[in-house]
Amino acid sequence: QAGRRLPPFEQRLCELTITAYEKGGAPPLPRVLGEVKELRKECIECGKRWAAECKSAPSARAADEAQKLGFEDMALLADEGRDAVGHLVELVKNLRQVPVVQLLVPSVVLVGAPNVGKSSIVKRISSGEPEVNNYPFTTRGVTVGHVHNPDVFAVFGKDCQVMDTPGMLERADDERNEMEELTVASMLYLPTAVIFVMDPTGMSGTPFPAQRRIRDALRERFPRRPWVDVVSKADAERGADYDAELEPAGALHVSAEDSTNMDTLTGRVHEMLGEVATVLQQRVAKVQEEGAAGGEA
Ligand SMILES: Nc1nc2c(ncn2[C@@H]2O[C@H](COP(=O)(O)OP(=O)(O)OP(=O)(O)O)[C@@H](O)[C@H]2O)c(=O)[nH]1
Ligand SMILES: [Mg+2]
Fold first, then answer.
1. Cβ atoms < 10 Å from Cβ of 133
2. What is the helix (H) or strand (E) element at residue 267, kind and residue range?
3. Any idea which GO molecular function terms this record carries (predicted)?
4. What is the position in ligand 1's atom list of the atom closest to the CA of 113?
5. Distance, CA 173 to ligand 2 centroid (Å)?
6. What is the rounded CA–CA span in Å between residue 280 and residue 290?
């Protein structure tokens, strides 16, 4: 319920956390909430009943006795509801672990199959030491760093975010697991540019042609996003399934290991952040205008 008042990205994170909690064997949230609501009602009724009993007791001693029985009754009720309340408490713990990302600063996300070198690139292009965010619904940490862009800073008063995503696998959208849902949600709801990373070495475990198909499917879904294609691990040998023909046009060959083309990539990142900032500024202005118009009406 409350989730519906959150910004869409955070709403999605809540949903994914709840889904993962239910998948872990907990009963469905609506049932838990129903049980807790019922328990609350019963507790209030029980309390009122015994309070009335105390009030109309013929003697102080009888009132004491009624109070004692009332407490026992309440304790029984609380015991009956222990499981439901326990589930709710556990879920709240999980929700509190969801990391907070800035929703209104220009960001760059690195997307690609698992193990292609995304986090290594985040580390190379971030200023300072990136943090690792852990989401309750995926076992993969998400590396979050920052890039200082003076123009963006002048407008937003904040550094831009650079983060990797938990990775994409090749399969249909309706089969995506939570780690992929998080990747898609980041792109859908955050003001992002994209660095798509493909690993040509065969070390990542996803064949090069499959990586290209993942890339094309995503590009088709987000055709206007500021985007740069990157082929990683330029310092290493190409794998058997690598085919130069399968590289997206204009792909940048980089290495986090020996810094090949890291400066060029950083330059591209700043350009893209500028583009994202422009779009974001327009969006913020529009929301403010609508807010002002709403206020006058
Ligand atoms: N030779 C070489 N190896 C690299 C390079 N970048 C990353 N690696 C290696 O590739 C592996 C995966 O790198 P990560 O940066 O963790 O990849 P990732 O895409 O973030 O992986 P996940 O978060 O697990 O999906 C690690 O063993 C790295 O050491 C590179 O430029 N050259
Ligand atoms: Mg990573």
1. 16
2. helix 262-296
3. GTP binding
4. 25
5. 21
6. 15
Give 5's pLDDT tier (boundaries 50, 70, 90): confident
Question: Does 75 score more than 80 pLDDT?
Answer: yes
User: Which of 187, 212, 186 is CA-nearest to residue 199?
Assistant: 212
Atom of ligand 1 nearest to the CA of 203: 10
Pocket test for ligand 1, best of 109, 110, 115, 253 (most atoms within 8 A of CB): 115
Q: Encoding tokens for residue 124?
A: 């190379």
Ligand 1 nearest atom to the CA of residue 232, by list position:
31
d(CA 270, CA 291) in angstroms, rounded, equals: 31
Burial of 292 from C-beta contacts in 10 A (0-12 / 13-18 / 19+): exposed
User: Is residue 79 classed as helix, strand or coil in its secondary structure?
Assistant: helix
pLDDT digits (tens, 9 = 90+) for 238-285: 999 999 999 999 999 999 999 999 999 999 999 999 999 999 999 888
121 and 254 in contact (C-beta within 8 Å)?
A: yes
Rounded to whole angstroms, the Cα distance separating 251 from 230 reads 5
